[in-house]
Amino acid sequence: MGSCTLTLDDLPVAVEFGGASRQAKLTIDADGGLHLLAASNVAVEDLQDFLASKRKWIYSKLAKKEELRHVAVHRELVDGETFQYLGRNYRLQIVGGSPQRVRLLGGRLQIPAELAAANQEFPLIDWYRSSGRTWVAPRVMEWAERLRVVPAKLDVTGLGRKWGSATKAGSVRIHWATFQLSPVLIDYVVAHELAHLQEPHHGPAFWDVLGRAMPDYAERKDRLAHVGAGLWFGNIRPRP
Questions:
Q1: Which portions of the chain are predicted below pLDDT 50?
Q2: Would you give the DSSP letter of residue 41?
Q3: What digits encode the pLDDT tens for the residues 125-175?
Q4: Would strands 74-75 and 82-85 be described as parallel, antiparallel, or unpaired?
Q5: Beta strand pairing status for 34-38 and 25-28?
Q6: Helix H segments across 102-237?
Q7: Helices and strands in the chain: count of H runs, count of E runs
Q8: What pLDDT is attached to residue 202?
Q9: How far is residue 203's CA from residue 35's CA, in Å, rounded to a whole number?
Q10: Dmax of the chain from CA atoms?
C-alpha cells in the first residue's frame, strides 16, 4: 500500500492506495481535509480526472461545513436555561449560599448567584472538564484494552472545533464540549482518538483498527456530524 498527495485547484488531497475496488472513495473530514482511497492499479491521471469530476460536490460540502462551524450556539446564565450533559437536558438553577461551585443536583445544573452574575462561561466549562474527566476515565481504559493501546495521559480541555486529539507520545485529549453528547457518541470520540495511537493517519489501516473494536463506527461518525454542530461551545449571550 502506498500514498501520495494530489491537488484540486489549491486543495490538497491525501491519497491512499490499496482499496479492494477500482472505484475510488472520496471522504471529507470534519476539519475539511480531503482523503481519497483507490486501488493500487488505478493511474494517478485517472484519479486526477475523478477529483475534477467531483469539484462541484467537494466545494458544496466544504461550504456547508464552513457554515456549520460558524453557527455559534449561545446560552444565557439565567434560571431555566438548558444545558446538555451526557445526552440529557438539564435546566440551570441560580442558587445562593455555598458551595461556590457548579454542581448537578436534583436534576438541576446549579450555579452560584455570584458566578452567574459575572456572566462568564468559565465556571460551567470547568464543571464540564472535571465532571467529564471523572466520567470518561474508566471508558478510556475500557476502549484502550479493546484497541490494545496504552494511553500515557488523559486530558479534558478546549480544542477549538476538534472533538479530540492524540499524540505519538500517547497523550489523549478530549474536548470538554464532547460531554454534551450521548455516551455512545462520546465512546466514538474516545475510540477514534485511541485508534490514532496505533495509526496516526486516516488511511484504510486506521479505519480497520477502529472497525475491529467498534463495528458500527460509521453510523456513530455520521450521527456525530449531524448533532455536533448544535452543541454549546462556550458562547454566553451578553446581557443588555
A1: none
A2: T
A3: 999 999 999 999 999 999 999 999 999 999 999 987 789 989 888 999 999
A4: unpaired
A5: antiparallel
A6: 113-117, 122-147, 183-195, 204-213, 217-228
A7: 7, 13
A8: 80
A9: 8
A10: 70
